[in-house]
Amino acid sequence: MGIKRLVLLVIVSCGLCWAQADDSHPAPTNIPGAEYPQIHPDLSATFRVRADQAQKVQLLMELGQSTYDMVKGEDGLWEVRTKPLLPGFHYYEVSVDGFASNDPGSRVFFAAMKEVSGLEVPSPESDFFAVKDVSHGTVRSQWYLSKTTGQLRRFFVYTPPGYDESTTRYPVLYLQHGAGEDEAGWSDQGHENFILDNLIASRKAKPMIIVNENGMTGVHLQPAPPQPASSRISAPIRQMMQDGFTLFDSVVSNDLIPFIDATFRTLPDREHRALAGLSLGGAQAVSIGLNHLDQFAYIGAFSPAIEISDTANDYHGRLANAARVNQQLRLLWIGIGSDDFLLEPVKKSHENLEKAGIKHVWVESSGAHVWTVWRKYLADFAPRLFR
Amino acid sequence: MGIKRLVLLVIVSCGLCWAQADDSHPAPTNIPGAEYPQIHPDLSATFRVRADQAQKVQLLMELGQSTYDMVKGEDGLWEVRTKPLLPGFHYYEVSVDGFASNDPGSRVFFAAMKEVSGLEVPSPESDFFAVKDVSHGTVRSQWYLSKTTGQLRRFFVYTPPGYDESTTRYPVLYLQHGAGEDEAGWSDQGHENFILDNLIASRKAKPMIIVNENGMTGVHLQPAPPQPASSRISAPIRQMMQDGFTLFDSVVSNDLIPFIDATFRTLPDREHRALAGLSLGGAQAVSIGLNHLDQFAYIGAFSPAIEISDTANDYHGRLANAARVNQQLRLLWIGIGSDDFLLEPVKKSHENLEKAGIKHVWVESSGAHVWTVWRKYLADFAPRLFR
Asked: What pLDDT is stored for residue B14 in this prediction?
C-alpha cells in the first residue's frame, strides 16, 4: 500500500454509492466497490475506463473474438455498452492505443498465459454454483516435490464439507484446466468448490476430493506453423494425442497421485479415482486416463481437444479392445457445446467410439468453448462418479 | 481459452528461450514463460510492453511513487531500465496514454483496491521465504457466515506441516493485511506459509495456525477532506484509533474466532491466540487486541497506522493501567522502517508507551512501507509467540 493511498484513507459509512437509474448493477466479478462494469437488465454490459490521452480504446471480449470501440464521454472516461451477453463467465481485455491489458474495475483470472479481466453475467442459471448457506468444503493450495520435473510444484485441493472432522476416506477427482490457464482455474473461474458444496448438500454427488495440478507442464503455446486452413484444428490436436503428454503424464501418475494418497484420506484405488479436464485438460484426461487404466476407472472430457478417427490405432491402440475398455472404464464422459469450434472433431470422436462399441456418455449441449459450459459439465459429471 | 489461442497450440520442447547476454533473468513474479521484466545483476530491472499506437508510456513504480518514461524501440516495443532496485517486493503499473493498468508479463497482486503488477527482486535476503524442500503447510481458502455482516465471507488459513496427520491442537495467529489489500495478501505477497514452513523446519517458531480475514470491512478508501499538510497523516490515523473498527472488531471477535475454534484443532484460549497486522491491519491489531484482552495475549503491529499520544485516554483508556496491561499482554510488538512515512507517529507511540511503562518489543528497521519489510517482521514476530 503506497504512501499516497494511505494519507487519503478515511473511514466512511458507504451505502450503495453506485446505485444506477436503470436497475443496472456492478458485476459479481467487479473489484469490491468498483462501479463499472455494469450489468443491465437485458444482460448487456457497460464498461468504463480512464485513458486521458488515448486515441483509440477498445473492449476485447472473449480474448478478442468480438471487439467494441469505446467512446470518450464528456467526463473524459471511455465507455461502451455491449449487446446483450450470454449469462455466465466472459474473459475480456481493454486495448488502449495497442496496449492490451486488464480493466482495473474487474478481478483477473489466469488465461492465455496472462492475467485477464473476467466478467460474470449472473442469471438464474448461476444458482448451481452460488455461494449458499450450506456446509462448505475448503480449497487448499499446497506444494510438493515432483521427481519428474525436479520442481516444487503447487496444486489445489478441494476437500468436501466434514473432511476435517471425520475419519472417512474419500474418492478423488483429478480435474484439469485448459491451455494457457493454471491450477487455480477450476476454483477461480470454475467454482468447483461451490458446485460440489451444493451437489453434496442436496445429496446429488458423493463427497469427494478434487485435485487440480498445472497441465501446462511440457506444453507451450506457440504460433502454429503455416498449414492449410482446413487442417488448422486437426493437426495440433492429432499431435497432442500422439505425444501423450509424456511429462505431465509422469507428474500425475508417478508423483501427484502417490503424494495425494499419502497426504489425504483417500480411497487409493482405481475404482475411487477419476480424471477429467476441459479442452487441453480434456485431451490430457483421455490420454493419461487410457494410459493408466490401472489408476483410473472414470474419465471426463469437457470440450476436449481430441479427434479420435481410428480407434484401432489412436492412443497407441489402447481403445482397440472395446470389450476390455468397457469392462475397465466405469465412465467415459464426453461433452461439447453446439457453438464450440471443436464440435466437429469431438462429434467425430463420439461417432467413432460408437462404431467401435466403446461405451460412453455423450452430451451435446448448447454453448461455446467457455467456462459457463464447463461448470455445467462438472455439475453433470460429478454426480455420476463413484456409484 | 479463446478459439484463436487454441488453434495456435503446438507442443514444443522449450528450453531457456529467454536467455540473455548479460546474465539478466526474468523476475520470479513473471508469468511462466514471460521474458520481461528482466532483473539485471545490479538489481536494476528492464520492463518491456507492446503499445503500438501509444504516444506516452510510463512505468509507475510503487503505485506511482517513482515514474519512468518508457521509450519505443526499433522493434516497436516500449522499454525502460530502472535504477538498481531494493531487493524484495515492488508493486508497479504501466500507464499508456493515461490508462494505468498491469503489465501482461507479471503476476498481479491485490493492492490499492485493484489488481496490480508485482515485481520480486530476488537476493540472498529472500532465503527466509524461499520454497524449500522442507515439510510444507497448506493455505486454505474457506467460507463462513458472519452474523455481524450477514455475509458469507472468505478467509485464508495456513495450517502447519503435519496438521492433517496429527491430533495436536495448535495456537492461532490472526494476521491482517493493509488498506486496499485483502485476505490473500499475506499468502500472495507475504509468503506467510513459506516463512512459517522454514521457521518451523528449523525449530525457530512453534507450529501454529495463521488466519487472514478481510480487514477492509467497514473501511473505505476515499479522498481525504482538505486539511493542513502537517495533519495529513495524523487526522485519519487518530480517527481510526477512536473509531475502533467497530464492524471488523465484531467480525473477528464474535464470528471469526468462534468459527475457527469450532472448525480447526486450536488451543482456544487467550494464551494461545495472537493478533497482528501491517499498516491498517496493525492499527486494527492494536485496537481490537486491546478491546479483547480476554481473547488475545499477543499483539503485533507492523508499520502500524497508529499515533499513541495520550496513554491515559487513547483506545478508550485501555492503556491507562500499565501494570494491568503488562500483566495481560505477553507480547506487544511494534516495528517500523526508518524510511516509512509513518515513522514519526509510530516512534512517538513507542516513546509514549515507554513513558507510561507499557512493556513492548520495539523494532526500528531499515526499509519503507513495503511487503519486503513486513515479511521480515513476521519472521521476527512469529518465533516470539506462544512461548
From this structure: 33
* pLDDT value of residue B108: 98
Beta bridge partners of B332: B299
User: Are the beta carbons of B114 and A142 separated by less than 8 Å?
Assistant: no
For residue B284, the surrounding DSSP H or E stretch is: helix B280-291
The ipTM is 0.90
Distance from CA of B356 to the nearest CA of A (A): 28
Torsion of CA A284, A285, A291, A296, to 10 degrees: 160
d(CA B241, CA B227) in angstroms, rounded, equals 18
Q: Which of B6, B13, B115, B195 to mutate to test the interface with A (most CBs of A within 10 A)?
A: B6
- Rounded to a whole number of angstroms, the CA Rg of chain B reads 22
Name the minimum distance, in Å, from the CA of B71 to any CA of chain A.
Answer: 14
Q: Extract the C-alpha cell encoding B264.
A: 480447526
Distances (CA, A) of B305 to A332, B277, B278, B360, B379: 57, 10, 8, 17, 20
Please list, in sequence order, all residues whose beta carbon lies within 8 angstroms of the beta carbon of residue A163, skipping any fewer than 6 positions away.
Answer: A137, A138, A170, A207, A209, A265
**pLDDT per residue rounded down to tens, chain A (387 residues):** 443 443 333 333 333 334 445 799 999 999 999 999 999 999 999 999 999 999 999 999 998 889 999 999 999 899 999 999 999 999 999 999 999 999 999 999 999 999 999 999 999 999 999 999 899 999 999 999 999 999 899 999 999 999 998 999 999 999 999 999 999 999 999 999 999 999 999 999 999 999 999 999 988 665 444 445 455 567 777 777 777 799 999 999 999 999 999 999 999 999 999 999 999 999 999 999 999 999 999 999 999 999 999 999 999 999 999 999 999 999 999 999 999 999 999 999 999 999 999 999 999 999 999 999 999 999 999 999 999
CA separation, residue B77 to residues A104, A114, B74 (Å): 23, 18, 7
The β-bridge relationship of strands A152-159 and A172-176 is: unpaired
When CB atoms are compared, the residue of B65, B114, B305 closest to A31 is B114
A&B contacts, CB < 8 Å: 282
Instruction: Find chain A residues with C-beta within 8 A of B220's C-beta.
Output: 10-12, 14, 33
pLDDT the model gives residue A249: 97
Closest CA of chain A from B323, distance in Å: 33
Q: Inter-chain contact B141–A144, Cβ cutoff 8 Å?
A: no
Nearest residue, CB atoms, B102 vs list A11, A101, A219: A101
Instruction: Give B367-381 pLDDT, tens digit per residue.
Output: 999 999 999 999 999
Residue B222 has pLDDT above 60, yes or no: no
- Asked if B284 contacts B176 with a C-beta cutoff of 8 angstroms, the reply is yes
* A280 chain-B contacts, CB cut-off 8 A: 1, 6, 9
Q: Are A148 and A255 in contact (CB under 8 A)?
A: yes
Give the model confidence (pLDDT) of A325-337 as tens digits. 999 999 999 999 9
A8 touches chain B (CB under 8 A): yes
- What residues are paired with B153 via a beta bridge? B144
Grid coordinates standing for A91? 474473459
pLDDT value, residue A236: 73
Please write down the long-range contacts of B163-170, taking CB distance under 8 Å and 24 or more positions apart. B163/B137, B163/B138, B163/B207, B163/B209, B163/B265, B164/A263, B164/A264, B164/B138, B167/B265, B168/B207, B168/B265, B169/B265, B169/B266, B169/B267, B170/B207, B170/B208, B170/B209, B170/B264, B170/B265, B170/B266, B170/B267, B170/B272
